[in-house]
Amino acid sequence: MNVVSAPWLVEHLNDSKVVIIDCRFSLNNSDLGKQQYKHCHIPGAYYLDLNEDLSARVGTHGGRHPLPDLASLAVKLSKMGINHQTLVVAYDDSRLGFAARLWWLLRYMGHERVAVLNGGFSGWLSLSYPISSEVREASCSSQNAIFTEQVQSNMVVDIDEVKSRKDLPGVVLIDSRETERYLGIREPIDKIAGHIEGAVNYPWQSVTDGSGYLLNVALQLSRWQEIRNSEEIIVYCGSGVTACVNLLSLELAGFRNTKLYAGSWSDWISY
Predict the structure, then answer these.
(1) Is 61 exposed, middle or buried (0-12, 13-18, 19+ CB in 10 A)?
(2) What is the CATH number of domain 3-126?
(3) What pLDDT, on a 0 to 100 scale, did the predictor assign at position 142?
(4) Is the pLDDT of residue 144 over 80?
(5) Within 10 Å of residue 138's Cβ, how many Cβ atoms?
(6) Which of 23, 40, 140, 237 is flagged as catalytic?
(7) How many Cα neighbours within 13 Å face the side chain of 238?
(8) Distances (CA, A) of 141 to 80, 111, 138, 148, 189
(9) Which residues contact 222 (CB under 8 A, 6 or more apart)?
(10) 153-268 has the same fold as 3-126
(11) Domain chopping of the chain, boundaries
């Protein structure tokens, strides 16, 4: 189960085997997501911050959002009452741009029971479903709530692997950023514009419609028609976050040969 609907989730708000995590965030205002959560959120939801929880501290290399320390994240997840039987539902209000990061991270840590909320928080509100302003602290001490990571190292690549593999027959390198950034016409974040030589462009926003709902499976399949026979697909974006939306799309389309270049363009240009 990679995706759940708002009607499904509202029926499972009190299910002890479902944990909801609010992932709202803004790259332009790093406090906004946390403020939005405190103002109102889906009842019972915890909050995880892209910078503080889902990324490590920025260094010389590794990109703008390096992968987090997995042991520390596992402790936080355990305190939320998450174990191997828990279904984690992640949501945001950015067309899955941040929720998909948590979706991918949990799978990378070996936890398959994770889904994103289709339509995000706006979709939830549009149905007049309940909201809450009660901040939920991660403090569960249950012996059953032990999240143990089992890292799937085959799901990620670093810059050396990208360099050595990107031009091999059967390997496709995907740039997930907006076309203007891919072409180097506009670069609002990173110091250097352009893309990795040989990469093809599949903007991550094309995975959903303008309201943040995923395109149906047939359309997801259609998006990837030109690379359907690829042996390996490496996906990147600016910092390894929104690339996860494309990885979700590929998963929905049935691809199992995908990898994330976690450092992405911001790591590539640091060298």
Answers:
(1) middle
(2) 3.40.250.10
(3) 54
(4) no
(5) 18
(6) 237
(7) 20
(8) 9, 20, 9, 15, 41
(9) none
(10) yes
(11) 3-126, 153-268
Question: Which runs of E-coded beta strand occur in the chain?
Answer: 3-4, 18-22, 46-47, 87-91, 114-117, 156-157, 171-175, 200-201, 232-236, 258-261
Over residues 36-83, the pLDDT tens digits come to: 999 999 999 999 999 999 999 999 999 999 999 999 999 999 999 999
Contact predicate 7/118, CB 8 Å: no
In the predicted structure, residue 227 carries a pLDDT above the cut 80? yes
Structural tokens at position 104: 């991918």
CATH for the stretch 153-268:
3.40.250.10
What is the pLDDT at residue 139?
Answer: 78
Looking at residue 143, its pLDDT comes to 53
Asked about 237 being catalytic, the answer comes back as yes
